[in-house]
Design a protein that fits this description.
The structure holds two protein chains of two kinds. Helices cover 0% and strands 43% of the residues of chain A. In chain B, the strands form two sheets. In chain B, strands 2, 4, 5, 8, 9 and 10 form a six-stranded mixed β-sheet that branches. In chain B, strands 1-3-7-6 form a four-stranded antiparallel β-sheet, with no helix packed on it. Chain B is globular and about 35 Å long. Classes of the chains: A mainly beta, B mainly beta. The interface between A and B is medium-sized, with 23 and 28 residues.
Chain lengths: 112, 114
């Protein structure tokens, strides 16, 4: 199964951009790259996903390397409310079932 | 409500007792997942339901764990003869079932086994 590797923790100053990296060197051709985040005492929340092209939505941007072996989640202006654990995951397909495998994620701390 | 609803939000039980955790997915979502999260850990996949297909039970840690999904909607996760290591937050998620991978999570049920 393809896995992802993320730094355990990162810090950012409020109102500055944040670049959260993710390595997925064993990604297969049809795996989508998804990002979720989990605020304290809450369930995970979908952030963004992509396949090959860079993606933008109201929450963030996703930059995907040309070889798809890595990606970066970009928060353009971090706020205190963005402090959370960010998970980079791959959508796996296995026969008729499908499961999303979450790693340990990156704990983002936003400093005022 | 519009989101995934889980109950109870908190459950304290004694070792050896059985517990049931309930999940009401978003209406119309055909895929339903159960995960658990121990303190300070990432999410651990437990089981996956998709429509009328046989569930993927590959993540269930032991035969004390089972789950049902009735009528393609509500799901119940049952843990028999609970152990202290079962203490965790149990998270339910649903998705439209189309291959988007976007999951909508509930707030979770926190289980404490004394």
């Amino acid at each position: 199964d393809a896995k992802t590797t993320q730094p355990n923790s990162m810090e950012s100053n409020e109102e500055e951009p944040v670049h959260l990296p993710c390595n997925h060197s064993t990604i297969s051709g049809t795996d989508y790259i998804h990002w979720y985040r989990q605020l304290p005492s809450q369930g995970p929340e979908y952030v963004i996903h992509g396949l090959t092209s860079n993606v933008n939505n109201r929450m963030a941007s996703l930059a995907i390397a040309e070889d798809r072996k890595s990606s970066t989640l970009i928060l353009h202006r971090a706020t205190l409310r963005d402090a959370a654990v960010y998970y980079c995951i791959l959508v796996l397909s296995s026969g008729s079932a499908r499961q999303l495998t979450f790693g340990s994620g990156t704990q983002l701390t936003v400093l005022p | 409500g519009a989101g995934v609803s889980q109950s109870p939000s908190n459950k304290v039980t004694e070792k050896g007792k059985d517990v049931e955790l309930r999940c009401d997915p978003i209406s119309g979502h055909t895929a339903l997942y159960w995960y658990r999260q121990s303190l300070g850990q990432g999410l651990e996949f437990l089981i996956y339901f998709q429509g009328n297909s046989a569930p993927d039970k590959s993540g269930l840690p032991s035969d004390r764990f089972s789950a049902e999904r009735t009528g393609g909607s509500v799901s119940t996760l049952t843990i028999q003869r609970t152990q202290q290591e079962d203490s965790a937050v149990y998270l339910c998620a649903s998705s439209p079932g189309v291959n988007t991978g976007e999951l909508f999570f509930g707030e979770g049920s926190r289980l404490t086994v004394l």
